[in-house]
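call fold(seq) -> tokens
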Amino acid sequence: MATAEQMAAYTAHLRTHTSAQNKPVTELCIFKLRAPYTQDHTAALSTFESQIAANTAPGNGKPNAPGIRRIAYGFSVDDPGTFVWMLDWDKIQDHWEFWQTEAFPPVIGAITELFVEGRPLVRHYDFGEEGMLDGVFKIARVVVWDDGEGRARELGNRGLARVRQVREAYAVDMDEMTWWCSLLGYESEEDCRADGGDVRAGEGAENHIVGLQYR
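ret:
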């Protein structure tokens, strides 16, 4: 489990990457659940909400989560071992500073308990001031891949027949700016599946239908 001291050293390195700073970003995390929780989503959600969401959801005067505008989370509909968590940040520096707050230990402790060891797929995307999808979209398709050829913006997924809202952007993270995310909002799982055959995604993409809760 990472310590505050380790994260402080990492932050010093990240601060040299100035192009990512001083603008809203959306952090998108794709985790793989540990075996006991793949079949027990009730227990997984209880731990996530009591230890992670409780320390990161905005509002209620939370002093340890400055800069967090909104969070959303949910399980992959088709892959019970995958969990998605998103956070809208005022700026990426707020995320770095969160690592030094009292809220960080319970959050990282729950992450260690719930999710497979090793670095999860975590990137910060420049969706602009709007951030993640609007909260009315409880069903989303989340598509993430490393677009080494730089064609994702040209192709995109805005022309899908049934999609109601689209957020697309490259990541802003140091050494990871070729990563692309298509975040697609739907009114129903049926509509999301109907568009599935036309979704554009790169080789090796993470591609999940997710039932989202917003806070």
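The longest strand covers residues 25-32.
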